[in-house]
Structure formats: C-alpha cells, structure tokens
Amino acid sequence: MTAPRSSRPAIYYTDELQMLTRVCRIVRKERGIEADTEGAKEIADLAFVLYSSGISDEKTLIQKLRQQA
After folding, report:
1. Whole-model pTM above 0.85?
2. Surface-to-core class of residue 26, CB atoms within 10 Å of its CB (0-12 exposed, 13-18 middle, 19+ buried)
3. Is residue 7 part of a domain?
C-alpha cells in the first residue's frame, strides 16, 4: 500500500507565498482573528486548498475565503 499524497505541491514560489499570506491576512483582519490562532490556521489551510484547486487570482481567492472560511 502506498502512502497518500498531498494535493498541495511541495514547493511554492516566493510571489505565490506572498500573495497567499496577503490574502490570509486580509481575511483574518476582517474577522478579527489573531495570527497565531486555530482560526488563522484554518483560513491558511483553506487558502492553500483553494489555490491548489486552481483559484490563483487574488481577488477571487479572497472572495472564496470570505464565503467558505
């Protein structure tokens, strides 16, 4: 039996990480969520899932996070 594979790529480019960080920060601030909390981790996890599923436009990603987080 093989180990399950992650749907996320192993490596992200610097500009991708900067954009994802920016998106997460915007949504966290809108919700009043501190950076080092479980809520922040959930937003980040969802951002990576959405990004990995093909949503790479910053504005679209923010909208999706607002709806789903």
Report:
1. no
2. middle
3. no
